[in-house]
Design a protein that fits this description.
By secondary structure, the chain is an alpha/beta fold. Helix content is 35%, strand content 25%. The protein is globular.
Length: 110
């Protein structure tokens, strides 16, 4: 399975169903095309999605195209990782991190 196949793209319209209603924990990568650090962690998250398959969903949300969700969760800097369990926000992390740090962060929420 390709890494990109495991990434779920969410929007303001699909956020409630795909994230808040998800049976597994979900990490949402809030990013923007113009944000270099966003691209750096998106590659790591795509790789981690393979490791986390069946344990956690890795989702992406374009901040520029989905302002409603960004306002709702007070996203003010990019990249931001939002982690949800059972429809509740349990963690918000701002800034790029190395893959090892991302792995540790996500493992703490499985």
């Amino acid at each position: 399975m390709l890494q990109q196949d495991l990434l779920v793209t969410v929007t303001d319209e699909t956020f409630a169903a795909r994230v808040l209603g998800a049976p597994l924990p979900v990490v949402v990568d809030v990013w923007a095309e113009w944000c270099p650090p966003c691209h750096a962690i998106s590659t790591s998250l795509a790789e981690l999605a393979v490791e986390l398959d069946g344990k956690m969903t890795v989702a992406t949300l374009d901040a520029d195209e989905n302002p409603q969700t960004c306002r709702a969760y007070q996203v003010r800097s990019l990249p931001t990782l939002l982690i949800f369990k059972a429809g509740e926000l349990v963690s918000a992390t701002v800034g790029a991190r190395p893959k090892s740090a991302l792995r540790s962060l996500l493992a703490g929420h499985l």
